[in-house]
Design brief:
The protein is globular. Helices cover 27% and strands 20% of the residues. β3 (58-62) and β4 form a beta hairpin. The protein has a six-stranded mixed β-sheet. Strands 13-16-17-18-15-14 form a six-stranded mixed β-sheet, with no helix packed on it. It folds into four domains: 16-92, no CATH class; 107-250, 5'-nuclease (Rossmann fold), CATH 3.40.50.1010; 264-336, Elongation Factor Tu (Ef-tu), domain 3, CATH 2.40.30; 358-410 and 421-563, P-loop containing nucleotide triphosphate hydrolases (Rossmann fold). The protein has helices at residues 16-20, 112-117, 134-142, 149-165, 209-223, 236-244, 275-279, 355-365, 382-396, 423-427, 432-445, 450-463, 493-500, 529-537, 555-563; strands at 48-49, 52-56, 58-62, 65-68, 77-79, 89-91, 107-110, 129-132, 175-176, 188-191, 229-232, 248-250, 268-270, 284-288, 291-297, 309-312, 320-328, 331-336, 371-376, 402-407, 465-467, 481-486, 508-513, 543-548. By secondary structure, the chain is an alpha/beta fold. The chain has 15 helices and 24 strands.
Length: 564
């Protein structure tokens, strides 16, 4: 598809002086002359609003071509003024206009936990303004010490506030959020610079920080009525109290990748029942090695993604299990899979038991796939398949030098305190799943060699598996390693990025987790690092995802997963 031609001219930004000093006619329009936009009639616009300079964003028609000017300057707040009756010039929305709504802007009052959850939240409110009560700054100062994620976020927020305050503008008039380069944030940041009177119920303790913030929200709502003032907090009880007082309150939603966990990319697409009848005549097929390739076209192609698995199962018609390897225009190429359910294709003595496990094993065994994510409930075989594929490629194929395994050390119950020993010994209690699966794999491989053979096999496997803590991952680079990240649902998106970017040449990373078992505070299915990675990597030529649907641990575990 050819790209549209570049615009021949560009609309520039009215400076404050060019707007205020331009000669005006009785009708209010500036006379044509030398100005920021040459030879173009300009509309009347007030030089300032509330005493602060403004940037005007216009779209100009010239020779039937639209020229859009989008600029932002420090210490200037971009506002989109509705143009007057002139037909040649009209106001246009910003670049992310699809997410902006017409109407008055809101004033969002941020709770401290929002700033400590996402340090960049100040710049996520688009054209709306942000207000920080003084008690929020006090709480930030109290949480800035330490090496925890919360302390790091508090320090990052403080640095962002310092950069905004260093612009030199009058704080009482608000600081432009676009002044530090975040052009999508066209609103202002306001600090509480004076005492606000609020009439909270006497049953609420006046000294508590949450109640002070509620008082600020109530006072702002009365001061700026009818403008909407909204409290943004991650604290559920805080939002409940606010609504009980008749105040608008919302959760911070910008960190969520998906609103509904059921919309998560599954990596599998069933073909329609009429697939062969509608696409059979136009399908091209050829053989290459042990795989058969199909080139298809039709209405199903736009819904496909690279490395997505498709299957067709219907009685009386041939079944198809394939993976999308190429999408070009209106055609897609499917490649049949290796059948790991058959004993001759067993991986370290392990055969797959259902369709999704077979899809997952194809991803784990493919050297062209560098990043694999596996999601599923307990007992679906995630850890066993990842370990079996890793041992085969490390010990048999010599594709990787060793297996590195790590996980988030988040307790289900109370913490058991400090643990003695080396890094690997400290991680031992967290690696019970590894020990259970290694016992099964070693038993299957050395079963005919007696007790000595099993002991030797276990020692060989242990020598090629390293257990590492996530706390010491910064700055490392893994080369030719097979990295397994277990319990990835407990990672934040930032922690997930830190781990994935450790990959060097020839390294494969496997992330596994169960989104129904999140133990980290403030994380949900929509904001988990595993959900974040699945959504961002879908469609990448060297990454793949499978949601395992059926448990294979035991009939007891399967029944318990359904009824408990």
């Amino acid at each position: 598809m050819p790209l549209p031609p570049a615009p021949t001219q560009r609309a520039t930004l009215f400076s404050q002086s060019s707007v205020s000093t331009a000669p005006r006619t009785q009708g209010g329009n500036a006379k044509q002359g030398k100005s920021s936009i040459s030879d173009t009639p300009a509309n009347t616009a007030p030089p300032s609003l509330n005493g602060a300079p403004k940037a005007i964003q216009v779209e100009t028609k010239r020779s039937d071509k639209k020229v859009r000017g989008i600029e932002s300057q420090p210490n200037e707040t971009a506002v989109h003024l509705e143009a007057s009756t002139s037909k040649s010039t009209k106001a246009v929305p910003a670049r992310n206009s699809k997410s902006k709504k017409a109407g008055p802007t809101k004033l969002f009052v941020l709770d401290t936990n929002v700033l400590m959850h996402d340090p960049m939240c100040l710049f996520r409110f688009e054209e709306h303004d942000v207000f920080l009560p003084m008690i929020v700054l006090e709480e930030l100062d109290g949480h800035k010490k330490g090496m925890t994620e919360v302390a790091r976020n508090a320090r990052q927020t403080s640095r962002s506030l310092d950069a905004l305050a260093a612009q030199g503008a009058d704080i009482s008039q608000g600081l432009s959020l676009a002044g530090t380069g975040h052009v999508d944030a066209s609103g202002k940041l306001f600090f509480q610079t004076q005492t606000l009177d609020a009439n909270l119920p006497s049953s609420l303790p006046q000294g508590k920080a949450d109640n002070q913030i509620l008082g600020v929200v109530q006072a702002l709502g009365q001061k700026y009525a009818p403008r909407e003032v909204v409290l943004v907090s991650k604290d559920i009880n805080m939002r409940v109290k606010a609504r009980a007082l008749g105040l608008a309150a919302e959760d911070y939603q910008n960190d969520k990748v998906l609103e509904d966990g059921d919309l998560l990319y599954a990596g599998v697409l069933p073909l329609p029942m009429d697939f062969w009848s509608r696409h059979g005549k136009a399908v091209e097929s050829w053989q290459q090695g042990s795989h058969t390739f199909y080139r298809i076209s039709g209405p199903i192609v736009p819904s496909l993604l690279i490395n997505q698995f498709v299957y067709f199962e219907s009685p009386g018609e041939p079944s198809l299990y394939a993976r999308v390897t190429e999408i070009r225009g209106k055609t897609a190429v499917l490649r049949t899979l290796k059948d790991f359910t058959h004993l001759k294709n067993a991986v370290w003595g392990v055969t797959t038991r259902n369709r999704e496990q077979n899809f997952a094993m194809n991803l784990l065994s493919d050297p062209e796939v560098d990043f694999v994510t596996l999601a599923g409930t307990a007992g679906t075989g995630k850890t066993l398949m990842a370990l079996a594929a890793g041992l085969t490629q490390v010990l048999d194929d010599r594709r990787y030098t060793e297996i590195i395994m790590t996980r988030a050390t988040v307790s289900v119950g109370e913490d058991i305190g400090f643990l003695p020993g080396t890094e690997e010994e400290k991680m031992g209690p967290w690696m019970g799943a590894l020990d259970d699966n290694l016992e099964f794999l070693a038993k299957g491989d050395g079963g005919n060699a007696g007790e000595w053979g099993r002991a030797a096999t276990t020692e060989l496997i242990r020598s090629r598996i390293k257990i590492k803590s996530m706390n010491f991952m910064r700055g490392r680079t893994f080369m030719n390693k097979y990295v397994i990240i277990d319990e990835a649902q407990n990672l934040t998106p930032k922690q997930m990025k830190t781990l994935i970017t450790r990959a060097g040449p020839g390294t494969k990373i496997v992330c596994m987790g169960n989104l129904a078992q999140i133990d980290t505070p403030y994380l949900t299915e929509g904001s988990s690092g595993l959900t974040y990675a699945v959504d961002r990597f879908k469609g990448w030529a060297h990454g793949g995802h499978i949601t395992l649907a059926r448990g294979e641990r035991s009939r007891l575990a399967d029944f318990a997963s359904e009824v408990l």
